[in-house]
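Q: Second attempt. The first request was missing the SMILES, so the protein and magnesium ion are both included now.
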Amino acid sequence: MENFQEQLKNRRTFAIISHPDAGKTTLTEQLLLHGGVIREAGTVKGRGSKKLASSDWMAIEQQRGISVTSSVLQFDYDGKRINILDTPGHEDFSEDTYRTLMAVDSVVMVVDAAKGIEPQTKKLFEIVSQRGIPIFTFFNKIDRDARSPLDLVDEVETVLGIQAYPMNWPIGSGQILQGIYDLQDNELIPFKNAKADESVMAEGMDEIELLKDAGNEFDRKAVDQGRLTPVFFGSALVNFGVTEFLREYLKYAPAPGPVLTVDDLEIEPDDPQFTGFVFKIQANMDPRHRDRIAFVRIVSGEFDRGMDVTLQRTGKKMRLSNVTQFMAEERENVQTAVPGDIIGVYDTGNFQIGDTIYSGKRKVQFPDLPTFTPEYFNRVIAKDVMKQKSYHKGVEQLVQEGTIQLYKSWQGNEYIIGAVGQLQFDVFKFRMENEYNVEIQFELIGSKVARWIRPDQLDEKMASSRNLLVKDRYDQPVFLFENQFALNWFRDKYPDVDLEAKM
Ligand SMILES: Nc1nc2c(ncn2[C@@H]2O[C@H](COP(=O)(O)OP(=O)(O)OP(=O)(O)O)[C@@H](O)[C@H]2O)c(=O)[nH]1
Ligand SMILES: [Mg+2]
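A: Got both inputs this time. The predicted holo structure:
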């Protein structure tokens, strides 16, 4: 058994990000296959009896063939323990993706080689680049006709403003894909079933000459700081270039580093005090057990099953005895874990997203995780009045997960839910039916501008049909303005009232 320091050195924790459909889940599946935790790569749309991808485990994900929530998976490869976080690409779920990005030490950006940098990739890149962590680029789908690799690399540099360093180079694509050329070892990795095409080959070799003369220098420090991205080409679907990518990734990706607390204290991973934070809560991962799991990223110290920790927000002491890790199809009970690892703590309702936990006496608090202000609102009711109990439970649990945000009418306590995007309502409805067996009905309120008002400044007469008064789940007053115009009008009328875009 490796000792603590060795284990720490061998951890690699990363998120896969991109615009929808670039192939994140497909790549994740191939990586799991490399790690030997699955025996066959599943597909995102399991046609017929085909196996489904491990990280799209939720019923609605399998039905629609898209990821709606991030998932955490773990595997070993080449002496390293890898924690991979597959994120959803759709912008309606980007709050979940943003939080997940706070829990990783590096990022793999997947780009569809036929499409180049798409809007959601750009947005996510900007968030990652603020953190200054290493970013690796994987141009996917070269088994289909792709854009010119020179153009693609140029686009990374001009659109994202990061230097790019190709680690390998595709020769042709689609029907005429010859292979990828390894620029480190200077050898061609031929594509199986390639139809040999001399002119494509010659053109590829010319490009490689050009790269060698005019390309960026490889600068390790720039990689570490997220100023230079190593670039790879391949196809996740046909498992071409994935092994080469994984090998190089493991060479350059960082082991867990220090994390800053709210008091600007740098907590080093080898600090003996156990610390970590909750970046995600997920209910009903195992529908038979109706469980609720808080995902904790370990920042420092060693986790030992049964250890006592303090929940910083409440000061409450608790024992961590029921803790799992996720290996594709299986969950394993965790005995020990180290920084970089993500552990799933069975939760009976103690945790919130963003919570810090720590062992020992020194108080530690990590910064809050990003939250978005919802823009769309719906009233919600249970169709069947007999199912009130499951209805309330479902709403409460899905709200704690951060799937949607809950508000209530100022008087009457009607439920109003808010979301950043429409798809979140679909997921909420589906999961209420699927996981809590409650059919719900929405009554459209529509797109609104939410602003919090200080309770001491509130006068109920300020409310009107153009600024609906509601309360958030902590009973704080919020106005839902019809539009920006209504908000400006309100500001003119009540110049002394402070309105906040966030709690
Ligand atoms: N031809 C080809 N298709 C691919 C490749 N990788 C993924 N696909 C297909 O692209 C589609 C989307 O793949 P996913 O892996 O679900 O993409 P994703 O990035 O996880 O999508 P979201 O999670 O919904 O954002 C699926 O139909 C895949 O089979 C590839 O290398 N080549
Ligand atoms: Mg996916």
